[in-house]
Amino acid sequence: MSTRRATSSSHVDYREPPPPRLNLDEVRGQAAREVAVRAIRKSKVQNSVKVGVTEVMPTKEPAQFLLRVADAIAETLQLQSYLFALISPPSETNRDELTLLIVGTDPEFVEGSSMLATAKFTDRLQGMIRDVSPSYYYGEDGADVHRYLATLYTPPSTPAPQTYDIPALHDILRKATFRPLSPTNPPPSSYSSSTLLSMARSQLQRITPEQALEEVTAAQENIDNAPTHAPTFIVDIRSQAQKESHGRIHGGLDVERNDLPWLLDPSEKGRRTVMAKQYDVRWIVMCQTGDASSLAAKELTEIGLLNATDMVGGFSAWKRAGLPVTMSPP
After folding, report:
1. Which domains does the chain have, with CATH numbers?
2. For residue 211, what are the β-bridge partners?
3. Is the dihedral of CA 185, 186, 189, 191 positive or negative?
4. At residue 330, does pLDDT exceed 70?
């Protein structure tokens, strides 16, 4: 029979003591560092510059917290060039104001961002303050960190910041950090007008004037073997001068090019035409030569009008084919 050796009544606790409690200022500093890490991880390198947009949590003192985040970014990216936009959503005390801080190592980038933001947000941007921090952080390379702080007014009817403001800020930073190698060479990731036209047409099933007339006639007469069983309209986006000079198509729907997406979008209930109530409408876009119509038709497909297309050769081809034309009275 085994016996147990008596153990000492003394007990040694090898557990580590709990970490000291942080005061409120230290908690805010830790939160700012965590936001800075998240902002850096989400950033992308563009033209050798780290670029990113980050929305932080709402706080009672948004400007001070954004400056803490900016300092934490500077401490982490001491030897790198960067440009960040930090945005704080409305607080309980200021429900219609966002706080925006643009921070970067290059004064030209920050200056350019502030100018683009002023132009993009027009009268919403207020109280822009340059170099708001009383002292700059100096990295090991001696580069200053420049900051612009502003209030972004948001009316109650405006959607959440993520709906428009975040993509807009991404576009602002992208443009601000772009430096063309030569004014005579196209910048990277740009497309010529001919390339854009080819890209648009690659996603359309374009039709000839004869096919357009056939589709419209079949839709009006409810022919069983009609190419499409949806309402079909020819949309004339030419200028008034072109219509008066070259003629019109009887029954064509006159829509200004600038108004086209809003008037034909079924979701724009306050602005759409009476025909634009459903997404399966067959919109056949027509211009004078068949170039602008391709870009316009592609835009319609992007808002969900997948049956939209355009007419090859435009009104000029329609007229050359001997199809009916209505001339304006002199």
Report:
1. 26-176 (3.10.310.20), 195-320 (3.40.250.10)
2. none
3. negative
4. no
